[in-house]
Design goal:
The complex is a heterodimer of chains A (584) and B (148). With 584 residues, chain A is of the alpha/beta class. In chain A, the strands form eight sheets. A ten-stranded mixed β-sheet of chain A has the order 17-18-16-15-19-11-20-30-14-31, with helices on both faces. A five-stranded antiparallel β-sheet of chain A has the order 1-7-8-4-2. In chain A, strands 3-10-9-5-6 form a five-stranded mixed β-sheet. In chain A, helix 9 links the parallel strand 17 and strand 18. The radius of gyration of chain A is 25 Å and the shape is globular. Chain B contains two helices and seven strands; from the N terminus they run αββαβββββ. In chain B, the strands form two sheets. Chain B has a five-stranded mixed barrel with strand order 3-4-5-7-6. Chain B has a two-stranded antiparallel sheet with strand order 1-2. The longest helix of chain B is centred in the N-terminal third of the chain and has 17 residues. The chains are: A alpha/beta (584), B alpha+beta (148).
């Protein structure tokens, strides 16, 4: 049962209660939230038990909450049939920067939280921001990318990655509201909203609501830009466009797997440029390959909205080259696109079915070409998403080739930004993996067991990959002395000490009892060694780690990346340099 | 008649002959690489072989992925043994080339590391499993399976 009330009266109708119980209700946004003044958010107080509204009092800095926040008060006497009442104000906003204390009281319960609501300078430092996200990109990925693409001789590199020359760096904490190690939905959400949430959540705080779409929402950077500026917005990835990181630009759902909902939320916001895989949720269910549950044709809807649609690299480049193209939708794979190692070297995975997928460098160039036609500027997110998707199944070679690809894509952006002095570029992982380089695996070391071939310290020497090609990729990965890279957490699996040349590694598969067992596909590989897992038996692959990640900044405003920052601070850096808030 | 059309007609005729119950125990084999024609990411069709065999019994070799939910009355036949996205818990993360298998009689799941041959009536087109909401494009109905 829902009761709508007027904007006023919460405080006056409330009763002052003497004494506070140990039961503390929940308030969203959460305690110590730090967010941009003027952004929209849903305010929710979850009372313990069923509470009559007249017995509640909710204030902000001593004033009635509804009067301060605006929006419409929705008092839910029994939320989703639960014996619990909630107060919900959708579309709230706090236009003035400052420190806010929120107090909620009900019979025998009370809770106080504080928010830091910040402003920004009134004058922007930059016109454009490009946010590169290396999904799961840990320190070892970058080191291995440098070794393979820039060569390591007598302990010194012959060259530097593009990101090595970014002048400002910061360590970033990525933990979530609910846990020390989080997922890509929540971690990207921190960058795109400035709020911290929970595993699986996009654009919402994870409340006790039962409906995925009913949780308290927070505004994304893309929504804020579309609502308050005339800038263009781009979302570029090589995963499915509905996957967590790109979806964090537009989505509001408790469950990142709500792909059909996310496609609809993309259409509602209409980012000017969208590129990735995930075409299966754009075509009606009657189309072979569709994953939709209805006959909605989102390709047609996007075309009607003025989008040029591209499905191959050639179509992408042609569409981007047309001066009149202002909206571009590129869908290059029904699922995740193939990574650089498969597309460029091995021709494995699904490259034979989809031979014309663009490289991330082409996607970034096309994105900049289209977005920069807007004289007011743009914000573009670019994700190299398969770094994570390859590291999960302990397939470091694929992850590292896609790290090299990310660096190449960053170089495209840096070359474009050049001396413009109007573009901030941030390159940042969203979380880490437990991955490390310990030496080499040298087939020529003595011994019959493969573990005897693991060269450590001086026995490792240096790997003998061929010199990289013009794009920075060695054209052979199964060399006789290759990097020894291991992930420190794993299910039961067979370690082959070799790259997987046909398709991405699948270390473990699910048995009838839902427990994961080692994939015996690799058991017969010469020298394969069974490793008993250290993860729970319902884990199918390596997991994210809670280690800090390294953010790198280039261009005006990048000096804000220094020391240690919380991941939500990345949003603040973007908002500050684009001057998206009221003056401080 | 253009050569391409003649060739296609001959191919379909040959497939239909294969599908005839000459020896009822040996339905024609269908491979995972023969399911779709992928002209681009947004232009995908069923192969001529799939179209010709729709409604007929076929045999497909693959691996049994356990159902995601206990109430499922099907299993997913995959080209290779596979794991599933830990966060998705839905049909979101499966590759495109899967076949949902509805068994004629209940059967215990097998060792996921051993390939099986599933036999059943090939059904094409989108289908949402009423118990789980799982979306599929290709199914085997009234199916059985044996170890390879």
């Amino acid at each position: 049962m829902r009761i709508r009330t007027a904007l006023f009266g919460l405080a006056t109708a409330g009763i002052l209660f003497a004494g506070h119980s140990a039961h503390a209700q929940t308030i969203y946004p959460i305690d110590r939230a730090s967010f941009l003044a003027g952004t929209r958010f849903d305010f929710k107080v979850e009372f313990t038990g069923v509470v009559d509204q007249s017995a509640t009092k909710v204030t902000i800095n001593g004033r009635d909450a509804a009067a301060v926040l605006g929006g419409t008060v929705d008092y839910i006497a029994r939320e989703d049939g639960q014996d619990a009442s909630s107060l919900l104000i959708r579309g709230a906003t706090l236009p003035q920067p400052g420190s806010y204390t929120i107090a909620a009281e009900g019979p025998g319960q009370s809770r106080t939280v504080t928010w830091d609501v910040y402003g920004t300078p009134s004058t922007p430092r930059v016109k454009n921001v490009i946010l590169f996200i290396g999904d799961g990109m840990s320190v070892a990925h970058v080191t291995a990318a440098r070794i393979l693409s820039r060569q390591l001789v007598e302990g010194k590199y012959r060259g530097r990655l593009a990101i090595d020359d970014f002048p400002y760096n910061s360590m970033v904490g990525t933990s979530g509201v609910d846990s020390v190690a989080t997922d890509s939905a929540n971690s990207a959400h921190a960058y795109t909203t400035g709020h911290k949430s929970s595993v699986n959540a996009l654009g919402v705080y994870a409340s006790r609501a039962k409906d995925n779409l009913a949780h308290p929402r927070v505004e994304t950077i893309a929504e804020l830009l579309k609502r308050t500026t005339t800038k263009s917005v781009g979302v570029v990835t090589n995963t499915e466009i509905e996957d967590a990181t790109p979806a964090s630009m537009v989505a509001h759902t408790r469950r990142r797997s709500d792909y059909n909902v996310i496609v609809d939320q993309f259409l509602a916001l209409k980012p000017d440029v969208m590129m990735g895989g995930g075409a299966s949720n754009f075509v009606p269910k009657s189309a072979p390959g569709s994953r939709r549950t209805d006959e909605e044709d989102y390709l047609a809807k996007f075309r009607e909205a003025g989008y040029a649609v591209a499905a191959t690299a050639e179509e992408l480049n042609a569409a981007a080259a047309r001066p009149e193209t202002r909206r571009l939708l590129g869908l290059f794979h029904p699922r995740n696109m193939d990574g650089a190692l498969d597309r460029k070297i091995l021709k494995g995975s699904t490259v034979k079915q989809y031979p014309n997928q663009p490289d991330l460098t082409e996607q970034v160039k096309a994105g900049i070409d289209v977005l920069s036609r807007n004289p007011e500027g743009f914000f573009m997110m670019v994700e190299s998403g398969l770094i994570d998707k390859a590291t999960h199944p302990l397939d470091w070679e694929r992850a590292v080739y896609d790290t090299i690809m990310l660096d190449n894509a960053v170089k495209v952006a840096v070359d474009w930004a050049g001396n413009r002095e109007d573009t901030l570029i941030i390159v940042i992982p969203d979380h880490a993996h437990g991955i490390s380089i310990i030496g080499t695996i040298d087939d020529d070391l003595p011994g019959t067991e493969m573990r005897e071939k693991v060269g450590v310290y001086d026995k490792a020497r240096f790997p003998n990959y061929p010199a990289p090609n013009a794009e920075g990729y060695p054209e052979k990965v199964d060399v006789s002395r290759r990097l020894a890279v291991f992930v420190n957490n794993y299910p039961d699996y067979y370690e082959t000490f070799r790259p997987k040349l046909d398709a991405t590694n699948v270390p473990a598969i699910q048995g009838p009892d839902k427990k994961y067992v080692a994939n015996e596909k690799y058991k017969s590989v010469a020298g394969a060694m069974f490793r008993e897992g250290i993860l729970p038996r319902d884990a199918d692959q390596g997991v994210h780690s809670a280690d800090d990640v390294v953010a790198r900044g280039w261009g005006p405003g990048s000096e804000m990346l220094r020391g240690f920052i919380d991941n939500t601070y990345v949003f603040r850096i973007i908002a500050t340099n684009l001057a998206l808030g009221p003056a401080k | 008649m253009p050569w391409a059309r003649i060739a296609a007609a001959a191919f379909l005729a040959a497939i239909c002959l294969l599908a005839m119950p000459a020896g009822a125990a040996t339905p024609p084999r269908l491979g995972f690489s023969e399911l779709y024609v992928t002209r681009s990411a947004i232009d995908i069709g069923f192969s001529d072989k799939v179209k010709a065999l729709a409604g007929h019994d076929v045999a497909i070799k693959g691996y049994m992925a356990p159902p995601l939910k206990a109430e499922a009355r099907f299993f997913v036949l995959t080209r290779e043994p596979m794991a599933v996205c830990p966060f998705c818990s839905s049909d979101a993360d499966w590759p495109m080339d899967i076949i949902v298998v509805y068994l004629a009689d209940s059967a215990a799941p097998t060792d996921p590391n051993r390939p099986i041959v599933a036999r059943g009536r090939l059904e094409t087109g989108s289908w949402i499993d009423p118990d789980t909401g799982f979306v599929s494009q290709l199914r085997l109905r009234d199916a059985s399976f044996t170890a390879e």
